[in-house]
């Protein structure tokens, strides 16, 4: 997450890559936050153009003649799932493009912006008079995860009439949801995460630690649940909905699963260890088969101070995920003591989880599901196993961290939604080991799911773990013991609704810069910095220099043995190695496309959030493209790309949307009928939000992270 590094630069923090703090992403050669974003991107793109030895326009950089698929579409068999992807490739924004771009037969609408009131009585946003009370009733900051849920009329009228969920209606939602989620709906619920705050982009007079501003920031975290009306064209936000609500950094959450009540979860404010205030740094997430939300706490370490003062078991379980040793950059600890770990060491143990909440029940208390482990969860992709258990895939987004899978102990039943809501309380957590398979260096192999299960005398016991609770608190450490494979920053994971194949976005790893035998200290342990079979690139600058890391990221396709999400072995292959296909040194590959440049593949870097359309094509949003590539740079605004994963055009990745300067694109999501595409524009004009404004017509004079919807002008399915 480049934005975190940016923030750290702002706070003048020094993040050492020596294991004393978590390794934050980014490249040493990245521009500083002091560089105006326009300059940075123009510099980057001109370097890239020079590298190619041709003076070309931004448009011709990305559109080869054969890529104009609206006019010259490759011949494919009828029924090919990629047939719908006929949109004309959108040129990447190069920094001079200040607004979102979509194909010419599409339009986009801003649905909700930071500060928008979510109820009729909520105060109007006033950037110069923000309070915790007003922010708690308004759309939060830095929108990330976006999920769409159909809202049947009977659910809405019941909640409107009674204000509470009825057990019979709950049951009906349970068995109707699997069908309704893929259909047209007149009303829908959306969840949008508010991952993190950046004070200097929120307050003209930002002062880290200012008690009033801290209170606003805490309320700007968490997520929003809102109701939309679909009436053809762009959906609209219904401010009168009884479902509209905020969950923030101060909302009570239940601690559920094996760690509920554990001594390491007990604090002075919560001696029973069962309730924690807030979720923080909610990044990506996913939908359960029973229609609840899973939202993931990612970089929760940055909120806590004085980890150096933590001793004993509390220090041991966070050895691999340490917080700031002294003051935090935000200095929340100055006014809210639970963020000071010297005084409240166990508060830290209560963050880093997957949170489940029911969008259909406005009274539902969010639940932290401790059985799924504690790490920097990025996503939560569910699939029912052959034995009717639920599997949840999740990545740990940090350099050299792991991919995980949870399989529930109990079985799913579509007729018992209330019971399904407890399925994530118990089960087996696995970490992934990616093996080379039959041959080295062929970008494919096999793998094993390693069960993170403590038993007396087993490897975890012998390594010093004393209980399963310790395994769940120190998930990274347990995965180390069993030999999981360190990956190049696992971001979002999604399961194809068509094939069951699992797609893992590895966004980049600038520290994957070693040769065999080279090691470095990362997150409290020594790790090989050399490439491995599943993370094969250590040299992607493209400027002729050696060992410059995996700057552009890749996407792995994982196929469970027997196509069963409950399997303990799998096969895998590298579906895409990102970068600019025109730059040989990027060493890219795109599925089965033999000539990516000739075929019109778009340059892409830093794949982050992903989603499938209902034909199984993969849609990828990026985070950090403009900075990628070190000295050479990539120089294009973040965007959205669509790529077929099956059929004759497997790998023919093309750009669908271009974002705005400084803003990553998050969320990607479809309405059930796939006629509306949603995404979030996070931190537009990052670090420059009071000087450059997006949405560009916004009257408040500050850039606002926003949820947008994209529609084809005739209402066609997205992709045409
Ligand atoms: Fe919050 Fe891994 O991006
Ligand atoms: Ca191999
Ligand atoms: Ca992400």
Bound compounds: MU-OXO-diiron, calcium ion
Q: What's the total number of strands? A: 33
Q: How confident is the prediction overall: mean pLDDT?
A: 90
Identify the overall geometry.
globular
Major sheet: 10 strands, antiparallel
Rounded to an integer, what's the Rg over CA atoms? 23 Å
Low-confidence stretches: 1-77
The structural class is alpha+beta
> Looking at the chains present, what oligomeric state does this protein adopt?
single chain
Portion of residues within helices: 10-25%
Number of helices: 13
The portion of residues forming beta strands comes to 25-35%
CA distance, first residue to last residue? 31 Å
Topology:
Blueprint: H1 2-10, H2 37-51, H3 58-62, E1 106-113, H4 132-135, E2 143-150, H5 153-162, H6 167-180, E3 187-194, H7 211-220, E4 222-229, E5 236-237, E6 245-247, E7 252-256, E8 275-277, E9 282-287, E10 293-297, H8 312-317, E11 354-357, E12 367-369, E13 381-384, E14 390-395, E15 399-401, E16 403-408, H9 417-420, E17 427-435, E18 444-451, H10 459-462, H11 468-473, H12 475-482, E19 487-488, E20 490-495, E21 502-506, E22 519-522, E23 525-528, E24 554-560, E25 569-577, E26 589-590, H13 596-599, E27 607-612, E28 618-622, E29 639-643, E30 654-658, E31 664-670, E32 676-682, E33 706-712
Parallel strand pairs: 7-12
Antiparallel strand pairs: 1-33, 2-3, 3-4, 4-5, 4-6, 7-8, 9-10, 10-11, 11-12, 13-14, 14-16, 15-19, 16-17, 17-18, 18-25, 20-21, 21-24, 22-23, 24-25, 25-26, 27-28, 28-29, 29-30, 31-32, 32-33
